[in-house]
Amino acid sequence: MLFLGSYTLILALIQHIYFLRAAAKRRPEKEQEVPSTDMIEVERALRNWQNGWNQDPESFLGPGSPLGPISFNATALLRMAYIRLNVDLGSWRALNTHDPHDIAVSIYRSPPLATNPRLARAVLYSAHALSIPVKIGVNIVAHNQAFSWSLQHSLCALECAFIISKWLIAIQPRVSEGTIDEEEARLYAYIEDMVIEAEAGGEIGTSSSDLCTRVVSIWARILSGTAHWNVVKMIGNILEAYAQILQTRPC
Predict the structure, then answer these.
(1) I need a labelling partner for 93 at 20 to 30 A (CA). Which of 58, 85, 126, 183 fits?
(2) 12 vs 208, which has greater pLDDT?
(3) Distance CA 132, CA 201 (A)
(4) Which residue blocks in the chain are alpha helix, DSSP H?
(5) Dihedral of the CA atoms 92, 98, 100, 101 (nearest 10)?
(6) Which residue has the higher pLDDT, 112 or 71?
(7) Is a pLDDT exceeding 50 seen at residue 1?
């Protein structure tokens, strides 16, 4: 089964990204970013991985593969790889506290993101992750994710919500001024259309007009259903608390 090899390889790439960031932190403070040469090499490896996954006849984008969930889980790991390559989440997730409110506050207080094309690509992958449950139906996924979503998908959801929300916060001033570039405008519109589609079914109960809050609320709703692992419930509670913080402190 080729997808088993793909799954192992994407895990190895995530581990490689971790070591690149760990090595960068040992350098002087002003040089603690991952070198651009390493970024380019990892991006090439991720593209090659994705091309291989696309060509594998056993690969499956949804959770209903007759061969099991490994191929579907690998897509979550690909998104995590792009996120972790572009953003050092580090201790800002504060998952070791096991307190949803404290973790949500830590995420909110994390440093602002510097927007760039690489970050936009990671945001796009994160938005694609949200588009799948939106197309299926948020409530349907919420009620059935325990049977089809792995722990990797739940962790990926947290990181996707993190990076989309921080990106929206970063570009909001330029959105208001009408100075975002064409690529950013397309990505912003894509996220906005997806949120409108999710809300059109009456599945999301938020009174906020803030796009950032609405995105996080959708993720929170998806993870609000029954779960096999307590950590999945905790992630759902984190996202709910984060959405509440964003609602009281708009982007």
Answers:
(1) 183
(2) 12
(3) 15
(4) 2-24, 36-55, 70-86, 100-108, 117-136, 138-148, 151-177, 182-200, 211-222, 230-248
(5) -70
(6) 112
(7) no
